[in-house]
Amino acid sequence: ERGGYKHFMLKEIHEQPGACAQTLQVLVGERGFDLTPWGLPPELLRSLSSVHLVACGTSWHAALVGKFYLETLAGVPCRVDYASEFRYREPLVPPSSLVVGITQSGETADTLAAMRLAKDKQALVGSICNVRGAMAERLSEVKLPTSAGPEIGVASTKAFTSQLVALLVLALAWRRARGEADEALERRLFHLPYDLQQALHTDSSVEGVAGELQHARNALYLGRGVLYPIALEGALKLKEISYVHAEGYPAGEMKHGPIALLDEDFPVIGLCPAFELTEKTLSNLEEVRARKAPVYVVGDGEHPRLREIAQRLVPLPRLPWPLLPIVAVVPLQLLAYRVAVLRGCDVDQPRNLAKSVTVE
Ligand code: M6R
């Protein structure tokens, strides 16, 4: 059942090209970027004033990326909340808001409670969910399915990248509804499964990083912009399956505190692909290097200064910015997996964790 893979997590990491292709096919197919079948016809999209994304854990990281997609590509104001925070305050849900619960399982108690609260506040409620007929879908008027197939490993991988695809489709459909379709990006998205296939080939260089990281007690993941949520996700993956303390931080915030932690025993993983924030991120990584912390980079392999400061560099291809988070997370998933295996951890069943958190 693990298809020749040693663990479900590794199998599911490798299923990502297919999971994203299938998600795209089901959501968009030959029909184009029109979400009418899922409850979001163009005229409804045009009438909405804002979006609110609520989720937990890895799905919350997807929401943080989704905010970039929705605000930058679709021009719609977007707020993001942990479902467990949203539900225990008095959140302002403006009239004509869409509130979307993002959840792999569709059964996470806090996410469902946040969706119910949004419904009480007269919002249009939607879900991005991987399980057909799950409670999150039953609570929703707008149901955007991800089609990653069953995810067994406790660490979410293919469900996450499929959520990012669904959020990008939502942003592109919204943009189209406003009469400003980005046809080049719409077409480019269909090539994503090939990019993900390439990203899986980073495993050999990731193994080298894992070998050096396996005895670390701490790690810091740094990213900027749309890659900051991916830094959070890389850190969460390492924490949950390898039990190595890790934090994700926006690279520009490092000098406001965490830099005090750094020394030769505190490895830093920098996300620095070719994008508009490459130079800014690079200068933060130079500050890290100056504190003698080992620097590992997942980024632009053709950048000479980056190659110089990186103790090891996992190369990422050049991609349009919306695809970067979807591709850049793959080597971080592989890194967490490799470190966990080297440390002898139970990858698919990490201690204290359940696949779906149906209690509060
Ligand atoms: O099923 P959901 O997407 O609602 O689950 C949310 C979180 O419990 C989940 O993403 C959790 O953080 C994973 N263990 C992350 O790998």
Describe the structure in your own words.
The protein is α/β, with parallel strands linked by helices. The chain is built from 15 helices and 10 strands. The chain has a 5-stranded parallel sheet, sandwiched between helices. Strands 7-6-8-9-10 form a 5-stranded parallel sheet, with helices on both faces. α4 (57-73) links the parallel β1 and β2 (78-82). α2 (16-27) runs parallel beside α8, α2 (16-27) runs antiparallel to α10 (192-200) and α11 (203-213) packs across α15. The longest helix has 20 residues, at 158-177. The model has no long low-confidence stretch (mean pLDDT 96). The chain binds 5-amino-5-deoxy-1-O-phosphono-D-mannitol (M6R).
